[in-house]
Amino acid sequence: MTVHIVMFKFKDENKDANLKEARERLNALVDLVPTLKSMEVGINFTVAERAFDLSIYSTFDTKEDLDVYAVHPAHLKVVEFIKSATTESKVVDYIL
Q1: Model-level pTM?
Q2: What local confidence, expressed as pLDDT, does residue 46 receive?
């Protein structure tokens, strides 16, 4: 199994609305991208300087399935929205 984790810091402008919109769009990908096996989307509640605002934990059968997800049109639309609403992101991918 391949795991894909991403964390995002959102811009202050429309932050709450953008967080909710991002969560909805990300959760919808499970039904739109066949290689995406599961996804958890969490909005952070911790108030700390080093905290990020939203994280995703997603799983795929293989690294190649993650590669397919990365360029899937539905995913790219979500990426476009998230890039417009965020200031920073971090990612880690690994195989179990």
Answers
A1: 0.95
A2: 95
